[in-house]
Protein 1
Amino acid sequence: MKVARAHPLWLAYLLHRLSGLGLALFLPVHFWVLSFALNDAAKLDAFLTLTEMPLVKMAEFGLVFLLAVHLFGGLRLLALEWLPWSAPQKTWAAAAVAGSFLVSTTFLLQAI
Amino acid sequence: MPERDHLTVTVQRGGPDAPMRPQTFEVPAYDNQTVLDVVSWIQQNADPTLTYRFACRVGMCGSCAMMVNGVPRWTCRTHVSKVLDGNAIEVGPLRNLPVIKDLAADMDPFFDKWVAAEGRHHPTRSRDEEIAPIDPIAAERQEANAGIECINCSVCYSACDTVAGNPDYLGPAALQRAWTLYNDAKDADRDAILDAVSAKGGCHSCHSMGSCTAYCPNELDPLSAIAGLKRATAKRFFGGRK
C-alpha cells in the first residue's frame, strides 16, 4: 500500500534533506575549484569563463536556492526543537522573518 | 440514499505464514458508515476468515487502528465518505509492526518500547502516605496534561518514517509518555527517564518529520513532546538541572 505522507512538515523535511545532499555534493567541487586560486591561477581564470554560460548562470541560481532553502530549513528546525513556543507563536515568528527578509532583499536589489 | 450502491474495498490479507496479498470485496454502501463497519461487513457476510481487531467502537480503546488508503487511522472513527478514493478504499494492517494475520498487527514491539522509554510511574510516596497535592496551573503540569490522553493506538508509531528506517527507535508514543512523566510532579526518577530517552534509538533519533502530530487521531503533539526531551537531555548534558 502506498503510504500517504504529503503534509507540510514532511515536505519541509524532504526539502531540507535534498538541499543538504545537493550542497554536500557541491561543496567538495567548490573547494577543489577554489584550490586553483592557490596553485594555478590560469586554470582558475579558464574555469571562471564557464560562469558566463547561461546554463551555469541558471545552475548558480539553483545553488543559491539550495543554500537559502537549507539555511531557512535549518533555522526552522532549530526553532522547532529548541524554542518551547506554541505553534501560533512560531507561525508569527516565521512570518516576521519572511517579511523582513523580503523587505531587506528588495532593498538590497535596488541598492546594487 | 447514498450516491453509490457499493464500495470497492481492497483488504490486505496474509501474515507470517503467507505473503501479504490484496483481496477485493464489493461492500454495500450506506449513508453513515465507518471503515470498521465495512471491515466487519466483510467478515460477517463475505469471508469469516478475515482477521481484524476492535473493541469499543467509539474511539476510546485504541484497538482498531489500520492503514486506510495509506494513512494510519482509527477505523471506528473514520467515516467512509471522508476517505473514499473514487469509489474505493484500501485497508491494511498498521505499518511498522509485525502482522499476526490480515489486519491484526502485533503490538508487542510498540509496548516493549513504551517500557524501554521508562514510560512507567516512579512513585514519590508509598500508599501509606497522604496523596501529594498537584498544582493544576503549573507550567510543568500543563506540559504533562498535553500528552495524557494518549490511548496507545499506535497510529503515530505506524505513521513514523524514522521507525520504518530505524528498528531501535522508540517511536513517538513511548517518547511522549516519557515526556509526560518527566513533567509529572509525582514522578521520582527523572534521571532514569532521561537516561532511557537519550540512549540509542531515543529522542535524538527523531528527524522531526511530524507525521506523528499530523496523524494523531486525538490531536496530540508527540513532535513537540520529543522536542521537549531533546531540550531536557541537552540541558542535562551541559550540566543544567531542571
Note: The interface with chain A takes residues 12, 67, 69-71, 90, 92, 95, 161, 207-211, 213-214, 223, 227-228, 230-231 of chain B (CB under 8 Å).
Protein 2
Amino acid sequence: MKKRNTIKNLPLYLMMVPGLLYLIINNYIPLFGLVIAFKKIDYSKGIFKSDWVGFSNFVYLFKTKDAFIIFRNTIGYNLAFIFLGTIVSIIVGILLAEVTRKTVLKVYQTTILLPFLLSSVLLSYVVYAFLAGDAGLINSGILEKLGLEKISWYSDPKYWPYILIIVYLWKTFGYNTIIYFAMIIGIDKTYYEAAVVDGASIWKQITKITLPLLKPTIITLVLLSLGRVFHSDFGLFYQVPMNNGLLFNVTNTIDTYVFRGLMQSNDIGRSSAASFMQSVLGFLLILGANALTKKIDKENALF
Amino acid sequence: MKTKFKKWLCCASATVVMSTFLWGCGSQGTTSTTGTSETSDVETSENTATTVENVSINPEDYPTIKVSVLCINEPTDKATVEEEISKITREKIGCNIEFVPIIYGNMQQQMSLLLSGGDDLVDIYFTGRWSTLSSVVNNGQAIALDEYLAPYEEEMKAAITESVYNCGKINGTTYGLTRYLNFAGFPVYTTTKEIGDKYGLQNGDAITLDQLTEFFEKVKADYPDKALVGTSSAGLNNQAFVGRVDNMGDPNILGGLLADDDKTVVNYYATDDYKNMVEYFKKWKEIGITMDDPLNVVDRPGDYLPSGKCLGCFAIHYDAASNGNYSTTNYGVECISVSIMDRTVTSPDWWYCVAPTCKNPDKAAAFLYLMTVDPDIENLLCLGVENVHYQILEDGTAAYIDGKDMTTTGWSMGVSWTWPNCTISIPFESDPDYYEIMVEANNSVEYSDAFGFAFDSTAVENEISACANVVAQYRPALECGVPSDMDASYQEFLSALESAGIDKIIEEKQRQLDEYLANK
C-alpha cells in the first residue's frame, strides 16, 4: 500500500527536485560561511586558515548607545509591519474574493502586485515625488493649494515611522494578499451557501467562516515572518529616506548601521557576525513562538 | 487530513515567498547603485590567463596581466586599447595587458567580489573611494611589492617624487602605488559667469569666507527664490566641507592634522577651526543658501546651473580657474570658480595594488612602473587610441573625436585622474598647461612630515564603525544648516563622537604616527 503510494507520487517527488536543489545550493551549502563570523579574514590565507577571533566580531554591534536605537527600530518596525501587513492583506484578500468579474479581478490583482516589483531606488523616487520640499505633490499640490504651510518632510523624524510603514505596506501588501486570496477561494463554497440559507450576513460569514478557516494560514505566515524580525529591508530604510542623517534616529536599523559602519573597511567578518546574530535571534524567536502556539492551539503549530 | 495538507501547502507557499524575499534582498544591493555587473568580461579574461615558461614570439604565449579600469560606461573598444598597450608591453616587459572594467556606480560591489573570490580575476587593481589601502592590506588582499619594484624604484621616484612614492608604504613595506595627481587642494565656489560678472567675481579669483558670505547676502537679496549652493546627502559637497585639515586618508576625518601642526592628531570637529566653520554654516543657514530639503537634493550641477534653479556649487580643486573651465565644459553653461580658502595638502586616497592571486607579480610590478613613467602607455590609458578615441588639436591638447562624447566614445575617458601618473599624458579637453599648473600647485605647498603616513585601523575597528555612523548622522546636516538649533546639534555631534570612542582612535593614530615619524 505504502509502496504503491510512493510510485504513484513519483512524478510529484520529481517535481520537487529542482526546488530542493535550489534550497541546498542556495540555503544549505552557504551555511559553512557562518565560520566567517568568528574569524579575522585574511584573503591571502583563505577562509579556513584565517585566525579564529571568538566573539570579537560581534562587539561593535553593542558598543554604543546606538545599539538600543537600531534594535528598537528593527524590531519595532518589523512588528508593526507584521501586524498591520497581516490585517491589510486579509482585508484586501477577502474583498478580492468578492469580486466576481474575471477581467476586473485580473486588473485588481495586477495593480496591487505592481509596487512589489519596484526596486527600492525607484521606490525612493516615488516617495520623493510626493514629499519633496519644493515640487513634491503633497507640498505644492495639496498643502499650498489649500493655503496651508508647507511641511519639511525630510527634516523632521516624527513623520517617518508613519511614512515608512505606509510605504512598506503599499509595496508589499499585494504579495501576501495573493496568498490569502488563494486560501479564501479554496474554502468550500457550501459553507457559505449553508450560511446564506441560515440568514447569515456578509460580516457574520467573514467572522464565522472565512477567518476561522484562514487561521492556520495566518499563524504559519506570522510565525515565519517572526523569524526575520531582526532583519530589516535595507532598501526601505536606506534608500527611501535617501540616507538622510537627520532621520537616523527613526530610520537606522541593524542593516543600515552595519552598512554605514563597514562600507569603507570591507570587513566581511564583522558583517557576517551581524547577520549571524540576526539569524540566530530570529531562529530562537520562531522556536519560542511555535512553542507558545503549541501550548495554546496544538493543531496549528508549525512543528 | 485536509487541514494538514493545507498547512503544508501554506508552508510551501510561504517558503517560496520567503526565498523570494531573500533573493529580492540580494538583488536590491546591486540595483541600488544602478547598472549591471560585468561578469562576462571577467570570465573571458580568466580563459586567457596562461602562463608560459618559454616566452616565444607568438603574442598569445606571453603571460597576461589583468588590470582594473574605472569607467562610467562599459568601454566598447576595450580589445583595441588592450592590443595597442600589449604591443608596447610585450616589447618592453614581456606580457600582455587585459582590462577588467569596473563601472563607477558599482565600484564597491564589483571590487569586493573580484577580490573576495579566490580566483585569479584581477592582478592589478585600484583601491581608494571603495576601500582604503590599510583595509586591503589588513584583509590580506595586497602583496608586498618592494622586492618586485626594486629595479624600477629610482626611476619611479624621479617621476612622481620620493614622498609620493612612499605613500604606498605601510609600516615601511610598499603595498601600493599611489597616483600622482593634485595633493594640494582647496574648496572653490562655482557659479555662472552671468552672476559672477554681475557681482564682480572673475574666474580664478581668491576670496575669503567672509567675502563669500557677503556675496551670498547680496545675491540672495536680488534673487530671493533661488538657491545659491547645490547640495546632496553628503552635505555641501561630495567631500567633507571643512577648513584646513589633512584628513590623513580618512574621508570621515576621525583624527586629522591641522595645517599648522603636522605632528599632533586632533579631533578636528572639536577644534576652533571647525567651530569657526560651524559659525559660517549658521550664517549661511540664515541667508538661506540651499534648496529645500538640502540633504535630499537629487539634481546635479549639470541640471540646476543651466536651468537657474540654483546658482552655484562647491567643489574641491587645486586651481580655481581650471575648475571654472572644467565646469564650463561639463555643466553646459559658462561658469567661473573662485577659491575661498588657502591650499591644504591632503594625503592621497587612491592606490594601485597587486592581488595575492597574481601569478606574475614581477610583470605586474613592471607594468606599475610603465604606468608611472611611460607617456605612450599613460596616453593609451587616459585617452585611448589616437584618431580613434581622441584627436590632437592645434594647441597640443587632446579632444574627443568630432561628434563623440563621454557616452558614445569607445574607451573609458574622462577618468584620467584614476591613473598613476596622468601628468605625463596629453591634457584632455582643457588648457594646454593643465598638468603644469597641477604640478606647480603640488610643488607650491609645504608637505607635512606626516604626508604618506597610512593608518592601520585593526585595533580600533569597532570605534571606527561607530564614529562613521555618527559622522554620517550629523555632519551633512550641520553643513547644510538643517537642524533647527545648530549649536545644540553641534554639541550633540561632539558628545556622540566622544561616546562612540573617537578619543581611542586618535590615541591609536597618534601612537602610530609617532612611530612613523621616529622611523622616517
Note: The domain at 184-345 of chain B is CATH 3.40.190.10 (D-Maltodextrin-Binding Protein; domain 2).
